[in-house]
User: Fold Prolyl oligopeptidase family serine peptidase from Paralabilibaculum antarcticum.
Amino acid sequence: MKRIFVLAVSAILCINLAFANADKDNKQKTISKWLRTEAIQLHLPAFHTTEDFSGKTFELKNLLQENQKDLSDINPRESDKLNWNGQEFAWEKQTSKGYISLPNKENQIYYFVSYLNTDQWSEVELELATFPMLEVYIDGVKKISHYKHETEKEKVLNESLKLEQGHHKIVLKVLTGKKNNKFKLSLKAKTDWNNDTFNLSLSPKQFMDINKVLDGTKVKSSVLSYDGKYALISYSRTLPPSDKVESWKEIQEVSTGKILSTFRGSQLTNIKWLPIGNKISYVKSYNKKTSIFIFDFENKKEKQIASNLSDFSSYTWAPNTKTLLYSVAKDHSKEWKIRKIQGMEDRLPGFRYRSFLYKLDVESGVKQRLTYGTLSTDLADISSDGKHILFTSSQPDYSGYPYFKQNLYQMNVETFAVDTIWKDKLVSGQAQYSPDGTKLLVQGGPSCFGEIGENIGDQALANNYDGQLYIYDLVSKKIDPISYEFDPSIGNAKWNAKDNKIYLQAQDMDYVRLFSYDLSTKEFTVLDSKSDVVRNFNMSNNGEVISYVACSISSPYKASVYQLSNQQTQVISNPEKEHLENIQFGKTENWNFTKEDGKTIIGRVYYPPNFDANKKYPMIVNYYAGTVPVERSFGGRYPLNLYAAMGYVVYLLQPSGATGFGQEFSAEHQNNWGITTADEIIEGTKKFAASHSFINADKIGCIGASYGGFMTMLLQTRTDIFAAAISHAGISDITSYWGEGYWGYSYSVNASGKSFPWNHRKLYVDQSPLFNANKVNTPMLLIHGSVDTNVPLGESIQMYQALKLLGKDVDFVQVKNQNHQILNYTQRILWNNTIFAYFTKHLKEQPQWWENLYPDKNL
Assistant:
């Protein structure tokens, strides 16, 4: 598959222009500067004059075709070495204004490389004039081949190219003959050349592109063994040009980085460390039944501890490793032609899925059922002595806000005695035991225990997506809301028995950080993770080491460990280091503004890598506004570094209602549905453009997805400051989303609590973009997955139809068989290219890319 690149390297990075002088028509230029290997002598195979089964003898062209060196991931510089069968051949610079000439010696192969950079989508013709045999590759794809040694006149071959904006690698494979080993490669443009648009370089340095975002090995998680000596690290990688993804795990020694075992291609699943000793357990299926094994990693011994488990789902080890708890699950949905829906959630996949808990005694192999009934039971935690467990059950309850009830139980797994810790809790909480088993650490929303945890000022309702921490005393039932004055939104926490501190991961504005909480001083302390966004964290069972996967705004995800004793951080896996070593990033900086009411709205700016404050730049404004802030993460579905690499200044802001800024700030999300946040986006955009002379205020675009897609639509009903607007999976009618989206009414618990279409028309109707479509004057692109269950496709369809009937400038693109997120590899590239091409058309006045992707048809 043709590799797709996104932005040109600036002239500063180029080793001069590698074009020869243009022809008189100013449309054709010869590539005059190359990196070339030293000559590599090839040899004919044994019995090359013997006919094969088809009656053919070995031909010289086979010598060129079958001597392969994959250069797809090699980006040479001058003086680098090419390894060929243990010999090293230097990459040297070769220059000629006309033909490139090679020594007249038979059967020598040379590799040539040059890097072409374009700052816009272009159509060009590749022209090769050659005497020797030669193959031409663009971005790893063979474009021209010539398999004959010409003696009298060169052979001229042409190939049409469509080049996306960005960095492209040209590779030649040349096989020399007895004489006339000359060739030249030229580019011919469909229109006159613009030297600011095209240049060639002998440097592999480049800006970010979509393949650098999607390809390469990604580290997903890291889990430590009992003593922190080993890490079980999970990886994934795409397998272009297919849409397949490979996932695997490796066991690595933390101190040395040595890989001790790999599970690439393994059929083993649920691989876990045991809580004691450096042992792992895993699951294997046989004839649709499940077996569980333990492997002593240091003694290299395997033991099967369970077999013939039906409907197996997952398992958790007791801290003493004498027992494990496992879940058996079954989907009770049946094939149907007509059926009655048993409540609102019954239309959702998985509503009739039920799971129950079992206990396995490891030594005897005895399996016992622990829970039964109508409602699923989910394991929450196991006590340190292994005698008690916490488990939950939950169910919808339409009788009152927030329409959901949770029960938490404690069971003695020796006597099967069950105690109810709480019943019919309206806001659910995730509970775990304190090290001594007398208390619970509960993570939930501000209203988890009613008003005791709410710190929302004058706001009417809390936003229960804003994670809080509580300590619940099992004897006195007393509740301590320990995060009441703590602004970050807490996502995950662990009570450490070794130092009796609580360690947690929390959204701190647009950062995600690690913190510790000292129960004696009641203070939170941030841990220096050397990163911006911590994706997950895990603690060794001896309480001495934390492992985590994290990234920074211009640095990919890495796996690291943090030693609690000396507060030192060590990177243990950085799989994208080589993949991204040639990427040049632009500057990023914070940019905040203060509203008239004194509230500060934070934001950040991404600059193009070759930024020049004396130039005028188009700008892209990004936001989410759906209560979760847009993190300072690397890559992702909307990689802002990539937009900047395409020559845009990118401004991202975090409007009111986002979590991670304190409960009062996040509670502003309730019953607002975008009015405050839209006006903040408009104010911030105007202020940023006015205070930065390098912004072209007539060429500002905006983009958002899901709630951010709704925000894109809403913005265009309230302002004309944008030159282009893109909404992915946006909500056009709050009422239809509330009723039809899989999570519509449940999300509305935190977006429009206690408000409904029948009692709050102003919010549901008057604030819906669909009912204000006549106010839209901005060109708008609506993109939507064709099988989106979160925000149904109809949300874009009805807005498209409204804008079409109103004669507005609107385009609508569907992504086949994709849900709320675009996950398919090739479709994700096409989806990104659609976004790039639309902005290029409207913000750079370069419609060619868009017109090539979506030519008008006479339908």
Observations:
- Residues 1-18 have pLDDT under 50 and may be disordered.
- The first strand starts at residue 28 and ends at 30.
- Residues 400 and 426 are 9 Å apart (CA to CA).
